[in-house]
User: What shape does this take?
Amino acid sequence: MKIHWLGIPIDSTQRIMITPSFRLRYGAARNMADINIDIGNKISKDVSAVIFGKTTWSLSNEKNINNNLELAKNLKKLKIKVIVDYTDNYLANENKKINHLSSDYQERNQNLITKTQEYYKRIIDISDAIITSSEGLKDEVKNIYFTKKIICIPDAIDDYGEIRSNIKNQFLWFGMPISFPFLLDALQKIDLILNKEIIVNCLTDKDIIVEAVKSKKILVPALKNIKIIISQWSINNVVKYAENSICILIPSDLNDSRKKYASSNRIITAFSLNRPVIATKIPSYIEYQDYLIDIDTNQLEAYLNNYEWPEEKLKNALNISKEFLPNKVAHLWSCNLKKIIQENK
Assistant: This one.
């Protein structure tokens, strides 16, 4: 059995923009022992299914998006299964203001989201099945496409190996530039509690954030006790900065329906770094709530007053993370893809 994955396979160790979904989802699927998986623009005639990976609309990507829609229609005519890997809630019909963004930047981002939403509505209409990255997202899609086959396969995580301890007065955040405003919200809250200066190392697409801050597209608030340092995301940098960190920051926004139904990937990744985790308790994190510090409760102040966190919780969280390594998640892809391909044959 062979399938094809349409994604953007650039150097996954150096870049975070446009690649996390490809790196962590295709990266797990390619570990399947009983299903061959190809990538690239050329699709062989003997494939049983094509997975359309995460896509975000842009002017430079408009042609590819239109090509994807035409390709999906043609695949259906050839009785080849069309599967959409859906990892962000672009179907959410809202125009929510994001803090710390200039009005022009806000408008630009909303336009990109609207265009991407249009693409997903069309590609999902054509599809035979939808794969989501969280149960909450699965339920959201089911409310709209209640006759579609929808399954959930969690994100895998990168394997960072054993993280040594060389702890300094530093916190660590990693994420996409679009999530940076949520970090700024969290830092304003944390800054009110801290009584000494902390460095927050931010691993993201450095060029985008630096340019956005410099041009005042992103408005960074004044912080009394926090110094923000932006660095380029890479697997090596995650290891380097995690070794020096007291804790990991994973803030989000429960009022943003696109982020509310995100996968558990970031919390599980943080667990793998063997550090306490301060997080917003979005739905996919609830089952792990015993192993995180809830940023929206008095747990936050209690932790920041002494940085004490039970060693047993760190150990248990680390063990949980090992179940999300690519070779562990691969069997979920294999079992579910075979079911989708065999259905209605």
